[in-house]
Amino acid sequence: MVDADCLTRHLIDPAAAYALLGIHLLGVADDTTTTMMDKADLFGESSGVVHPGALVTLLEATGAAALLAVCRSEAEASGLVRTLLSATVDFRLPARGRVTGICTLDDQVREAVGRVAAGECERARVATLTEVRDGTGMVVGGGTLRWNLQRRTAS
User: Domain spans of the chain?
Assistant: First the structure.
């Protein structure tokens, strides 16, 4: 598993949208990746609720970080191309405050990601399920994102 610094270099730093929203990695433990959006209050609606578009970006960042966390080296992480194919989002309650995304990958997804990252297969389609919690820790929504994964080809 790659470390948090590697994930930040290959995911958070290059993505201007993540930086704008203040999305950063809180941690990777076992099969679970956690991110936080600490500028959510800047992207709220007039009611103080975090804008749904910002929450979708958090879902995408958390799922992508979880996929990269499976990689065994920085070389694997930098070579794994992730294309988001679709997202199904469930907003259950208004999100306020600092929101977190929590994604736990199952064994089947971890195996598929690992095989593509290691070059054992050309591509895979996987899904990530991410839960969103508000500043109080209450689950306010979540989403399932479907991804196409492949190895970066030499250009």
Answer: 4-151
* Rounded percentage of the chain residues whose pLDDT exceeds 70: 86
Query: Of 3.10.129.10, 3.40.50.1700, 3.30.420.40, 3.40.50.720, which CATH number belongs to 4-151?
Result: 3.10.129.10
Q: Sorting pLDDT into bands at 50, 70 and 90, what band is 52?
A: confident
Cβ burial, residue 25 (10 Å; 0-12/13-18/19+)? buried
DSSP three-state, residue 72: coil
Measure the CA–CA gap between 2 and 71, rounded to whole angstroms: 6
Q: What is the pTM of this model?
A: 0.89
pLDDT tens-digit map of 30-50: 789 999 998 766 777 777 788
SS3 61: helix
Q: What are the b/e assignments for 5-14, b being 16+ CB within 10 Å?
A: ebbeebbbee
